[in-house]
Design a protein that fits this description.
Order of helices and strands: EEEEEEE
Number of helices: 0
Mean pLDDT: 86
Radius of gyration: 15 Å
Number of strands: 7
Helix content: under 10%
Strand content: 35-45%
Strand order of the largest sheet: 3-4-5
Low-confidence stretches: none
Length: 80
């Protein structure tokens, strides 16, 4: 259930629709006025095209490992 309190939004991931923006990717999105939070699930060994965006990105890895290429260097992110 979603509860909107002045400028707060409380939600439950179980109530957010799952989208499939590309093969092997599941995405859920919560969009506010100034922030967007995305929850992704990727199939193992999925490779996505290198890309950039104007905003900062924060990633929390819950399970498995993710390899990012940041300024030409490979960085492995894992849980914790």
């Amino acid at each position: 259930a979603e509860i909107s309190l002045t400028k707060a939004l409380v939600t439950d991931w179980d109530n957010i629709p799952v989208e499939n923006p590309a093969e092997g990717i599941e995405r859920q999105m919560v969009v506010g006025q100034n922030m967007m939070i995305c929850r992704f699930r990727f199939t193992p060994f999925l490779v996505t095209p290198e890309h950039t965006h104007p905003h900062e990105q924060m990633t929390l890895v819950m399970q498995g490992n993710v390899k990012f290429i940041i300024e030409g260097k490979a960085v492995i992110a894992s849980p914790g």
